[in-house]
Amino acid sequence: MGRAQERGQDARQGRAATEPGRGGSAHSQGEAGLAPTRDGRSLYYQRLAGPDAPDGAAAASGAAAAMPTVVFEGGLAAGRSYWAPVQVAVSAFAPTVVYDRSGLGRSAPDPGPRRLDHLARDLGDLLDHLGPGPFLLVGHSWGGPLVRLAAAARPGRIAALALVDPADESCDLLLRPEMRRQERMGQRISALLARIGLLGPAYRSLTAALPADAAADMRAEGYTVAAMRTRGRELEDTRGDLRALLDTPPDLGEIPLLVVSAGRPSIGMPPRVRERATASHAYRAGRSPHGRHVVLPDADHMVPATAPDALAREIRTLLAG
Asked: What is the pLDDT of residues 161-220, one digit of tens each?
């Protein structure tokens, strides 16, 4: 069997294991489902139920129902698969959900705008589908401001927030014209690599950090021309989105907040940028009455892949209050 055939077989096996209503062996990221949005699209998600329920007396007292579901929100054009190592670790102590934003992975595309407020409404629709909560929202990179908006819209169902190396409007570098130029250049390069089939190999180390089934999903779904098209749409007005956050900051009230910074520079985040980003994270945590800032020294910006166990421990501490 050739490599292309092997990749196709891997993708088919992964899809069969996770599509709603189909058989197949258990997927490392859990049971699949589809959540409807208010305008009729579907969002694909996977759920791990978490640890076994406590004994009957505890369950009867409502302790089991009070455990928040941890919902993971990806960064720019990032689907569910790269969360697998963290999700599996967190599922040892809490129920977890990962999902694909519209136009990514197995979620239907969206003909409407891909601005932050629209993405946050979609996340809110997913939470509506999952139940009354409570939820602990984890947002990485561009997912950081996204989960802040979703939490501020319905704070009563949010137990806590974890922002993982987030984009933050307090970081002035993100508002400068040179950042827009870098975004446009990065988008052109990513789209080109996707067209010629080299985007996946460029992220080989990221994919290698995943369980085999999640890696097969990511190879099949994460590096496509369609995914890069969605990436371009999510980049349409990042400056406008950040300005909107500056003008009208999401009110998180008393929601406990964890802000995690990576400790190491990486491609696209050299030492000077790394320092400014970390300072913005400390600022964001300091704005919360229940904020905590943590630096993971062994992580680079792709914290979910480079420090999954350390991140899972911080999420567990946040859940413990």
From this structure: 999 999 999 999 999 999 999 999 999 999 999 999 999 999 999 999 999 999 999 999
Residue carrying the six token digits 């819209």: 153
pTM: 0.89
Q: Note if the bond before 134 is cis, omega within 30 degrees.
A: yes
Cβ within 8 Å of residue 267, ≥6 positions away:
none
Return d(Cα 33, Cα 20) in angstroms, integer: 6
> Tokens 């910006």 map to which residue?
301
Mean pLDDT across 292-297: 98
Distance CA 237, CA 245 (A): 13
As beta bridge partners, residue 262 has 296
Quote the CATH superfamily of domain 28-52+62-320: Alpha/Beta hydrolase fold, catalytic domain (3.40.50.1820)
Compute the distance between CA of residue 48 and CA of residue 64 in angstroms, rounded to an integer: 15
Query: How far is residue 251 from each of residues 134, 136, 153, 291, measured CA to CA in Å?
Result: 18, 16, 9, 14
- Per the structure block, which two tokens stand in for 306? 């480079």
Residue pLDDT, tens place only, 223-255: 999 999 999 999 999 999 999 999 999 999 999
> Amino acid identity, residue 222?
G
Half-sphere exposure of 179 (CA within 13 A, CB side): 17
One DSSP character per residue, 90-155 reads HTTTS-EEEE--TTSTTSPP-SS---HHHHHHHHHHHHHHH-S--EEEEEETTHHHHHHHHHHHSG
